[in-house]
């Protein structure tokens, strides 16, 4: 093998940018055209349309796109999908195949020189593959040999804590449950997951304040809200079906405030995809008040809003705050008021980049609204003070009594389609004692108590050779994680890296001494086990657990389901397990029975999961009960604005998604809603900042991140003037991940701070 190491970063090559006007509204004809083009190219039209008809229907399969819920009642035939859901399905059902012949033809080094787009478009993996030590090409391996090799490597470790078991968020409840059970029987809680990089800050902030780490609203609440505030989220791209819910809020007379450094098109105007008469034209206005906040200015903004509300409340007591709710249900109100009084608006204002009059207008609307929903995603959760962001959101809702009642509450909008379910199933490095005890009782073993590594700690452990085997249940670890070069060293330090995957990705080429790829069935495919055809279940962003049944014939006879793969690994590894792994996977009802016996909320799981639309899990915050918190009440908390000080010529960089990607899977090279076509290596900048730096439109620049005296460089980006606050910039994930320092993470949740990267921009 050559000394050259396979590339962990996408190549620096530019692809030929074209700029267009930023569209005025989202969805509409272009979205439908784009969806159909992806379907036609990847899957073929006839099969593709059949697939879409099954998507998110009560008898169909769950969209692998996002975790936005389906309507409880009416579901339009052929309409519960969106442009990006169609792209997600097209990616999975693609005609392209990565076969043993493909691997024989393309070395690991060669594939690492391709862009993520090219890697992904190679297609679905058809056979289990192994990269042997010293070899530059993957070769076929039997399932049995693969399982035995894994068992041998795991049992060779000095301690079970030397293995890392990562999970991405597409894994079904059934597979996730078996996986965590196997890992705990093996003897570790090293179960980091994509959630650590995603909504962990929401979980941390919400559990402490409201006693549940999940959101409290249901889809129907959007029909009853006076006001929906959307913070740090781009639903037009990442949760397109949410636009229907926002549109419903408007239809019922509610208002929308958007808080975002970018005027994301989808939030501004929208054409209803389910009403063809409305596909053309300028669409419906969604956002009533747009607060173009500076990156990481949210705590400062929320504090100003709460100070303005306090002023109004003091003038007319009982008209702004819900005093009865505060008195009966909450803890720490006086401390919050003292904290608010310790700040002045003048001190806070510069962090927001907004004028006081803009904030006053928003505060007025909040003051007069009784039922408020606050939605958020990565714009709030990926900062050093991300947990503060979430807790400050909760403070505002509590002041208004906007929780635990119809039309009001918390709405952290989840990403991966089953990321919430995976956590419910025990994919967590910090399991609760009661959960472990239930497992022990049901399966007669001693579960480990020591907390495991989260994503950042896992990378550091592999880097230090404290962990030597990496197993990924889905996902694309090298491209999703921060500090690409550091993480690559960590993975290369491993004795074995193993990925259970559907499609080829960069993590397959940045590998340990030996590497395995185990190909699995996708959501859209039928899953046959000994007792016949199986279905799986998933939990959406609003805590509804429902069924998902594949529709397509599996692309290769060699694929196994995720539960079957876990069972295979478990049997080859565990010598004294009392679990009959292969029997459990003959019929997933048996796994669901075990879930019912060990996890609260799943009574009569097998019966209720067969009901159309599934069932809601219990949710104390929704039920206006905060007894699970430490104080037994909903807690007000004291939070800190950003403490990042930019030096002269420094900028804040947020790493975001284009309209044409699913995390690290690149569907295409366009970001249509931001007017950028055929190029991903761009940086959006404020036009005045560009002038000041002497940077012209489309100049080539290098991005250099600065953290505790360390520098990291991403080369060759095109500068684009854009509507973004001063000193704020944006670039795309995963190209910019190399700039995110491993140690730059949120307090408490440890989520990488991928939205607050301090950079300088240097003209090449
Ligand atoms: N098509 C598609 N769908 C997806 C995904 C995908 O990649 N593609 N990914 C899925 C996953 S896993 C997730 S987690 C979600 C992600 O969904 P989003 O969170 O919507 O995704 P991002 O692109 O990270 O966008 C973050 C948004 O926050 C804003 N923002 C950034 N920093 C700040 C800040 O400091 N304050 C405020 N107020 N706003 C800020 C950005 O301008 C941007 O609009 O989407 C899920 N759905
Ligand atoms: N800089 C920066 N970094 C980020 C983010 C950011 O905003 N900025 N966002 C973060 C967030 S929110 C998240 S959630 C993570 C995402 O991190 P991951 O979940 O690790 O990444 P994905 O790109 O979603 O994983 C895609 C891969 O999953 C595999 N796959 C797809 N479907 C299936 C399936 O059904 N089963 C199995 N076994 N495998 C499957 C395919 O092989 C595909 O290549 O990235 C994080 N990283
Ligand atoms: Mo995510």
Main sheet characteristics: 6 strands, mixed
The whole-number mean of residue pLDDT values reads: 94
Examine the secondary-structure arrangement and name the CATH architecture of the largest domain.
3-Layer(aba) Sandwich
* Sheet with most strands: strand arrangement: 6-5-18-17-16-7
The CATH topology of the largest domain is Rossmann fold
**Which CATH top level class of the largest domain fits?**
Alpha Beta
Number of separate structural domains:
3
Task: Output the structural class.
Answer: alpha/beta
Domain Molybdopterin oxidoreductase: 124-496
GO cellular component, one term: membrane
Pfam families: Molybdopterin, Molydop_binding
Organism: Tenacibaculum holothuriorum
Description:
- One of its GO terms (molecular function) is molybdenum ion binding.
- This is CbbBc protein.
- It holds the Pfam family Molydop_binding.
- Belongs to the prokaryotic molybdopterin-containing oxidoreductase family.
- It comes from Tenacibaculum holothuriorum.
- With about 775 residues, the protein is of the alpha/beta class.
- The protein has three domains: about 45-200 and about 420-615, 3-Layer(aba) Sandwich (Rossmann fold); about 200-410, Dimethylsulfoxide Reductase, domain 2, CATH 3.40.228; about 650-764, Beta Barrel (Barwin-like endoglucanases).
- Helices cover about 35% and strands about 15% of the residues.
- It is built from 29 helices and 33 strands.
- The strands form ten sheets. It has a six-stranded mixed beta sheet, with helices on both faces.
- A hairpin with a 2-residue loop joins strand 30 (about 700-705) and strand 31 (about 710-720).
- Helix 22 packs across helix 24.
- It is globular, with a radius of gyration of 25 Å.
- The model has no long low-confidence stretch (mean pLDDT about 95).
- The structure holds ligand MGD (2 copies) and molybdenum atom.
- Molybdenum atom (MO) binds near residues 194, 198 and 415.
- Molybdenum atom binds near residues 194, 198 and 416.
